[in-house]
Specification:
Layout (H helix, E strand, L loop, with lengths): L2 H20 L31 H9 L4 H18 L30 H23 L16 E2 L4 E3 L6 H12 L9 H23 L2 E7 L7 E7 L3 H13 L2 E2 L26 E2 L22 E2 L9 H4 L5 E17 L3 E16 L1
Parallel strand pairs: 2-4, 5-6
Antiparallel strand pairs: 1-2, 3-4, 7-9, 8-9
Helix pairs in contact: 3-4, 3-7, 4-5, 4-6, 4-7, 5-6, 6-7
GO molecular function: cytokine activity; frizzled binding
Function: Ligand for members of the frizzled family of seven transmembrane receptors.
Family: Belongs to the Wnt family.
């Protein structure tokens, strides 16, 4: 190994050591940091040096080949969270960098018990299911592959049979439960138990979203594309589609009581007979408005955020700027345009300029 590679590896080790110093082993959300490390998860560092709790480290030691899938699952969840909320007051802001930045990855929202907490846990659990299942289907692991339960059968009368490689989402869900679900009995304090129960439920809601959106893909067989017989298999939806479903669940999330007797129930007494479904997102506390900066909670506020002057939606200046108004400034854009191919052999373009109004919250 050359000197540059040794220096890079030593810096990598120092980075993970700093992560471990920042986060206690028992925290549930530490693994999420693996999704922002641009270098991925180097297996040479070993499970003991990753920001995981004791149960996760033990599972990691037994299945180290899953580390790339865990990292990819975290990356998927973070990316989709930021995509779904990019135009909202809370825009799923994550820490700008790993240590020396000492803030948690999702800041205040990770433990606030709000609707935002619910979405974070659900989308991260879904990301892990999606990534592990994809890895199984790609043949990257020996203990899982395609869903073997669908290899036989079909509908002869309808002219199709199971074939191809169906995504084994059940294995992905099993691993996600093993890796993420921390037993409630291991938590202390009334508030911690309620929050843990909420997080466990939202983890499962994220997994259920992946399973619910499984779709049937088919390929035709027959003379001249007649589709006399079809081979079909089940596949996961794109993670963007799963993210949209979870965003809808977020918009319709259920507030629960901060007290648990035998099971969780709705906060409003007149609604407690309405059952809570396993795919509902649950929250305990109402969200702050995210309008004004709160350094104590790590809320940046919306000052300086770009808004859409003509929109009536969440990205509109009226809503995003919380009634404070907005500033307008002109941005000059320069780009190549009206390009033509000249024989022979180059492209000639004009230099075009345009002016655009950009609106930012006061």
């Amino acid at each position: 190994m050359d000197r540059a590679a040794l220096l890079a590896l030593s810096r990598l080790c120092a980075l993970w050591a700093a992560l471990l110093a920042l986060f206690p082993c028992g925290a549930q959300g530490n693994w999420m940091w693996l999704g922002i490390a641009s270098f991925g998860v180097p297996e040479k560092l070993g499970c003991a040096n990753l920001p995981l709790n004791s149960r996760q480290k033990e599972l990691c030691k037994r299945k180290p080949y899953l580390l790339p899938s865990i990292s990819e699952g975290a990356r998927l969840g973070i990316q989709e969270c930021r995509s779904q909320f990019r135009y909202e007051r809370w825009n799923c802001l994550v820490a700008a960098a790993a240590p020396p930045d000492t803030s948690p990855l999702f800041g205040y929202e990770l433990s606030s018990g709000t609707k935002e907490t619910a979405f974070i846990y659900a989308v991260m659990a879904a990301g892990l299911v999606h990534s592990v299942t994809r890895s199984c289907s790609a043949g990257n692991m020996t203990e899982c592959s395609c869903d073997t339960t669908l290899q036989n059968g079909g509908s002869a009368s309808e002219g199709w049979h199971w074939g191809g490689c169906s995504d084994d989402v059940q294995y992905g869900m099993w691993f996600s439960r093993k890796f993420l679900d921390f037993p409630i009995r291991n938590t202390t304090g009334k508030d911690s138990k309620v929050l843990s129960a909420m997080n466990l439920h939202n983890n499962e809601a994220g997994r259920q979203a992946v399973a619910k959106l499984m779709s049937l893909d088919c390929r035709c067989h027959g003379v001249s594309g007649s589709c006399a017989v079809k081979t079909c298999w089940k596949t996961m939806s794109s993670f963007e589609k799963i993210g949209r479903l979870l965003k809808d669940k977020y918009e319709n999330s259920v507030q629960i009581s901060d007290k648990i007797k035998k099971k969780m129930h709705r906060r409003e007494k007149d609604q407690r007979k309405i059952p809570i479904h396993k795919d509902d997102l649950l929250y305990i506390n109402k969200s702050p408005n995210y309008c004004v900066e709160d350094k104590k909670l790590g809320i940046p506020g919306t000052q300086g955020r770009e808004c859409n002057r003509t929109s009536e939606g969440a990205d509109g200046c009226n809503l995003l700027c919380c009634g404070r108004g907005y500033n307008t400034h002109v941005v000059r854009h320069v780009e190549r345009c009206e390009c033509k191919f000249i024989w022979c052999c180059y492209v000639r373009c004009r230099r075009c300029e345009s002016m655009t109004d950009v609106h930012t919250c006061k």
